[in-house]
Amino acid sequence: MDTQTKGIKAHLAAHMRDFGLLFALIAIMVFFQIVTGGTLMRPVNITNLFLQNSYVIIMALGMLIVIVSGHIDLSVGSVMGFVGALAAVLIVHYNMPVAVTVPICLIAGAAIGGAQGYFVAYWRIPSFIVTLAGMLVFRGLSLWLLEGQSVGPFPKSFQIISTGFVPELFPASWGEGLAMLFDARKFNVLSFVLGLAAAATVIRMGLKARKRDMDYGIESEPAGLFWARTLIVSAAIVFLMFKLSTFRGLPNVVVTMGVLIMIYAFVTERTVIGRRIYALGGNEKAAKLSGIKTERLTFLAFVNMGVLAALAGLVFAARLNTATPKAGFSLELDVIAAVFIGGASMSGGSGKIIGAVVGAFIMGVMNNGMSIMGIGIDYQQVIKGLVLLAAVFFDVYNKNKQG
Amino acid sequence: MALKGDIMTILLEMRDITKEFPGVKALDQVNLAVKGGEIHAICGENGAGKSTLMKVLSGVYPAGSYDGEIHFEGALAQFQGIRDSEDRGIIIIHQELALVPQLSIAENIFLGNETAKAGVINWYEANQRTSALLKKVGLKESPTTLIDSLGVGKQQLVEIAKALSKDVKLLILDEPTAALQEGDSRKLLDLMLELKAQGVTSIIISHKLGEVRYVADTVTVIRDGRSVSTLDAKAGLSEDQIVRDMVGRDMSDRYPARTRRAGEMLMEINGWNVWHPEHSERQVIKDIAFNVRAGEVVGIAGLMGSGRTELAMSIFGRSYGRGITGTVKLHGKEADVSRVDRAIKAGLAYVTEDRKSLGLILDETIRFNTTLANLEGVSKGGVLNANAETKVAEGYREALRTRTPSVFQKVGNLSGGNQQKVVLAKWLNTSPEVLILDEPTRGIDVGAKYEIYAIINELSAQGKGVVMISSEMPELLGMSDRIYVMNEGAFVGELSAEEANQERIMSLIVNE
Asked: Where does the record say this protein resides (chain B) (predicted)?
């Protein structure tokens, strides 16, 4: 028993960052659940929480890759606003069908990212400067596109990108029965089943990775800790999905987000291109001399960021049902903060998708919780700033202690 | 400046110094006695504890954090930090120079110690004093010259001038010639002897035993955190004697025996010209032609700055220079080496001179670094196979005897020799036919060097061609089947192993 607790302690110490982040999120959620008198975890609020943060999370996925590759993108807020404006103008003013507008907007995002990436990758202009320019340019262009006005509303077919919910595929009687059982007004069975499936996947993948590690004699985390962590995560998923099921079900945007998170986690951790991005950020010269086309990779990181910023722009516009010149204003800072809270390093080469997502949720829950409590925007900014500083301080402190 | 030292008085004595880190005893009752006015060399393999000892001495590890006593000028010294030891006249010049490149020589020399009144710097005085100091170290540069524009050798001299400005009593040079070419090294060593004549006591830490023999009066050898012997060098000391104490065993052969077998022609390079990437009128490589046969180790000798690294990098995917012309033939057919990935595919591998900044990703694991240049080999459809990666990394760990608990260690935590093995593993994993090794044993201790040599021999026995660039002449002579001599961007001679010796190589370089 003694050696076992020692193993758990040692493992916790070695993986302070990952566990610290998870515990911080849980602690923040519990805290706000208590101080808001249970409002935080009400189904309607959980739905809002996801809708409010979906675009930050979508952009954080791209930002993580940009930051891992050793760069930064300050333009994402403006690009997001610009693409939302573009969509509004095309749909509302030019009556273009949604099915045509969406691809055009995504391509526009790719082109914007590509243009910025071109200067960063092939001309070696610091990304800070290129994207600062981009931030100003696209802020201005959205104003010009919208002529300073809000443009809307959007047709239903566009709104569902954000505010739609997954349909019920199970017989209505099932839902009614479960609703009675759980004393809820209604119950979306499909959402709940998807939640159970997601939780099962988390457990299965965890076990698989654990078995692989053991086969190769990699010191894996103690069994107790593994199960505690895995069960907490899967229970949280089931709990959230249950709550969502008793409201309107799973929002479409959560499905989009979930799929994107899985794809990006897979790409960064398991593929050749992902590996090369970490190598590029870790030591560009060494990566280059190992045959990696570093310029092209940097360029692609920005193209990818542009596409995700465009997608976020569509989601944002669809949620507000209007495109405003102010959309996405200073949002790049939230996105960058999420990535750094999630443990990415400013110098590139390290950081994980899941960290960025949790980082975004930490920011999101705090925004939401403080708003419910009626804390003014002034204090909110101060608190968010301090949390960012604390998270990064925690990182540096840990590193110094280990070194 | 210190008083003209009486050779017999002990200036510094470190008694029974023991320093422990969690889980490791870095120093175990080390004794060191430095006499006033002498040059005292400290030798030892990497990780033997030389740097730790100097950190104890300079107060980086403050008094109380170690056991044992330091006596300086006959009194017990308890330094709490570098400032304390510097105030007493103990000054360390580290391997990595601590100069600010954008500032002038004078600004650097008086940095933190400005000749100022009420915060206003008296530049006239600063420049004048700097001139005097520069004369002392044999530099003709103006005090207002920017550090940026000086070579490493001259920067080293500026560091020494800086030390002299602080009224130095004990000057400590940590691997001062590691980055210098022969001529500059000699100048630096001569300067040490000159300072000795003026009464300055110095400690030199060095891997290069020839230098130690050249300057040192006394040699203390440290092994595994203990001081194993103190040798009198004035009476004449053989390198083998020092090596024996350093590694704890006899090393009669510093180079493993190799059987020569030059097979078929592997790589031929003809008419290779390269121009400087920024100053396009400057030709860096001039019409070079050379070849490597299967199973051959071909050495390239030359001073630093002669263009050896530039030659290697320009061949390897045009990683250096512009306007490159010439042909590379592999197995008699012209090969496309216009990009790094193409050069790798053609069968070339290049082990860089600077493994930390060009060869490795220090924050990543051994496994990550081992597979990096050939991710195709451990993936399918762009998806990595973690098991295959581990297998590959484990395979090379065993084959090259990399000392590490597992392949999941960060390479930044490994010693120089083991890091070099990881770099070699990375390139062996690309199944190259010709390996270009640029300073493959720089900064590696004697034992690990021998292992690297054995690996090189193993590769040539497998029929691979090896091109070895090295500043260490004995190493080139001990390992190569043929040696090309390079000077100012051109080959000035080719010597077979039988013909080659240090004098002939130097005379080829000098006579050009």
From this structure: Cell membrane
Average pLDDT over residues B168-179: 84
Q: By C-alpha distance, which of A154, A47, A166, A51 is closest to A105?
A: A154
Rounded to a whole number of angstroms, the distance from the CA of B337 to the nearest CA of chain A is 11
Structural domains in chain B?
10-247 (3.40.50.300), 261-347+432-512 (3.40.50.300), 360-430 (no CATH)
Structure tokens at A239: 């709990």
Number of domains in chain A: 1
Say if the Cβ atoms of A349 and B364 lie within 8 Å.
yes
Residue of B nearest to A288 (CA): B340
Considering CB atoms only, which of B361, B382, B408 is closest to A286? Answer: B361
**Of A48 and B49, the one with more pLDDT:** A48
Helix and strand numbers, DSSP H then E, in chain A: 17, 0
Q: Does B173 touch chain A (CB under 8 A)?
A: no
Considering A5-19, B373-387, B469-483, the range whose residues carry the highest mean pLDDT is: B373-387
- Find the chain A residues whose C-beta atoms sit closer than 8 A to any C-beta of B: 212, 215-219, 270-273, 275-276, 278-279, 282-283, 285-293, 349-350
ipTM score of the complex? 0.87
B197-231: b (≥16 Cβ within 10 Å) or e: eeebbbbbbbbbbebbbbbbbbbbbbbebbbbeeb
B112 interfacial to chain A (CB closer than 8 Å)? no
Helix axes A353-373, A252-270, angle to 10 degrees: 150
Residue corresponding to tokens 């009593």? B169
Whether B382 sits inside 8 A of A272 (CB atoms) is yes
Count of other CB atoms within 10 angstroms of residue A245? 27
